[in-house]
Design a protein that fits this description.
403 residues; 19 helices
C-alpha cells in the first residue's frame, strides 16, 4: 500500500480549493466584464480611428467643459428662478387655483381623480419625482384605485420640468413664442396617450387592480404630520421663505442635471456634429456624424411624423430619453447651425416634456411605489406617448402656420 507524501496533503486540501474558488470568481465576472470591454473598445476604437485619439480626447474634454460653463450654469440659473417662482405660486394658492380649474378635465381625459391635477401642476413646476412624493401621501392616494395610482408614473413624467423647458425654448433667439406652447399642447396630448396605455397594460396584467383602492387605511396621524405650520408669519417673511426655499430646490435640480448634460450630451454631440473646416482639430463640438447618417436612411419617417427638415434633429429625442436637461442643451447649437426651425422647436418641446428622461426615472419611480415589475409596460406606454406628442405638435404647428 502506497502512502501519499506529506507535502502533497496541504496542496490538495488548501491550494486546490483556493485555486478553484478564485477561478469561479473570475468566471463570474466574465459575463459582465467582457461584453462591456468589447462595446467600449468598439465605440472608442471607431471614434479614435476616425478622429484620431488625441483629437477625440480633446473634443470630449472641451465639449464637456463648454457645456458645463455655458449650458449647465445657464440651466441652473433658470432652475433657481423657476424654482422660486414655483414655490411662490404654491405658497400663495395659485397652484391650488390651477388645480381647481384643471380638475374637471382629469376624469374624461386621463381617467384619473380630479386631485391628480395637483400632481400635474407640481411636476410642471419641478420634476418627475414630485408625483411620487404625492403618491406616497395617503391624503392624496386615497382617491385612487391601484391601476390609477400606478399610472401616475406616466402622468407626472409627461409634465416634468415643463416650465424649465418652455422658458428655455422661449429664451432662444429667433424662436416664435407660440412654438413652445404648441409643444406644451402636444405634451398634454402625449400624456393622455401614455397614461391611458399604462392603465390598459396594468389592468390587463393585474385585473384585480381595477377595483382595488390604492389606500385601504386612512392614517390621520400621518396627515397631521404634513400639515403646514400654524405659526402666523408676515407677508414679507412668507415671500422670502418661498423665494429662498424654491431657489434652493432649483439649485438641487440644476446640480442633478449636470451629469446627464455632460455625459449624455457630449456622447450625442460627438455622434451628431462633423468636422471643423473639413478636418478634425480637437475643438469642441466636433464629431463623426454617425446619428445623422443613420437618420438619413429613414429620414422620410421623421420628416412625415415630425416635420424634421434635417437628420441632425434626431439627436434631440434620443437624448430626451435619458435626460431632458441634456436634450435642451443641444438646442442653441442646432439653432446656430440652422437645423432647427419653429416647427422643430414645437416638436422638441413636446417630446422633451413628455419623455422628460423617463428611461432614467421610471424604474426608480415604480420601485418606490412597489410595482417594479411594471417598468417595461410603463416604458412602452411612455414611448408611444412621446411619439404621439411629437406628431400632434407638428401637425398643430402646420395648422397654426396657415393663419
Amino acid at each position: 500500500m502506497t502512502t501519499r507524501p506529506p507535502h502533497i496533503v496541504p496542496l490538495t486540501i488548501y491550494i486546490f480549493p483556493l485555486i478553484s474558488s478564485l477561478m469561479k470568481k473570475l468566471l463570474s465576472y466574465i459575463p459582465q466584464g467582457i461584453p462591456c470591454l468589447i462595446i467600449l473598445g468598439i465605440i472608442f476604437g471607431y471614434l479614435g480611428n476616425t478622429m484620431g485619439v488625441a483629437n477625440m480626447m480633446n473634443t470630449i474634454m472641451k465639449t464637456s467643459f463648454d457645456l458645463l460653463i455655458n449650458t449647465c450654469f445657464f440651466l441652473m440659473a433658470i432652475c433657481v428662478i423657476t424654482g422660486a417662482l414655483g414655490k411662490i405660486l404654491t405658497k400663495f394658492g395659485v397652484v391650488a387655483l390651477f388645480e381647481k380649474i384643471l380638475r374637471p378635465l382629469m376624469k374624461p381625459l386621463f381617467n384619473l381623480p380630479g386631485t391628480a391635477s395637483l400632481g400635474a401642476c407640481l411636476t410642471f413646476l419641478s420634476d418627475n419625482p414630485a408625483i411620487i412624493t404625492l403618491a406616497h401621501d395617503k391624503k392624496f392616494a386615497r382617491f385612487f384605485r391601484k391601476y390609477q395610482l400606478i399610472s401616475l408614473t406616466n402622468f407626472g413624467t409627461a409634465f416634468g420640468m415643463g416650465l424649465l423647458v418652455i422658458v428655455f425654448m422661449v429664451a432662444q433667439k429667433g424662436v416664435s413664442p407660440a412654438a413652445p406652447f404648441i409643444g406644451l399642447f402636444g405634451a398634454f396630448c402625449g400624456c393622455i396617450v401614455s397614461t391611458r396605455f399604462m392603465q390598459y397594460f396594468t389592468i390587463k396584467a393585474y385585473p384585480e387592480f381595477k377595483d382595488e383602492m390604492a389606500v385601504e387605511v386612512f392614517d390621520e396621524e400621518q396627515l397631521a404630520a404634513i400639515k403646514e405650520e400654524n405659526e402666523p408669519k408676515s407677508l414679507f417673511i412668507r415671500i422670502l421663505d418661498a423665494i429662498l426655499d424654491g431657489g434652493k430646490a432649483g439649485v438641487e435640480i440644476g446640480l442633478a442635471i449636470i451629469p446627464g448634460v455632460l455625459v449624455i450630451s457630449t456622447s450625442v454631440m460627438i455622434l451628431t456634429f462633423g468636422q471643423t473646416d473639413g478636418a478634425f482639430t480637437g475643438a469642441a463640438y466636433e464629431g463623426v456624424e454617425l446619428l445623422p447618417w443613420l437618420a438619413e436612411k429613414i429620414h422620410v419617417v421623421f420628416e412625415w411624423l415630425f416635420g424634421f427638415t434635417d437628420p441632425h434633429l434626431v439627436a434631440f429625442p434620443i437624448t430626451a430619453l435619458g435626460a431632458v436637461g441634456a436634450a435642451i442643451s443641444l438646442v442653441p447649437n442646432f439653432i446656430e447651425q440652422g437645423w432647427m426651425d419653429n416647427n422643430a422647436i414645437a416638436v422638441c418641446t413636446a417630446i422633451g416634456m413628455c419623455w422628460s428622461g423617463y428611461l432614467s426615472t421610471h424604474t426608480a419611480m415604480l420601485d418606490s411605489l412597489g410595482y417594479r415589475q411594471l417598468t417595461g409596460k410603463a416604458i412602452t406606454a411612455h414611448t408611444i406617448g412621446g411619439i404621439a406628442a411629437g406628431i400632434v405638435a407638428h401637425w398643430a404647428w402646420v395648422v397654426v402656420s396657415l393663419f
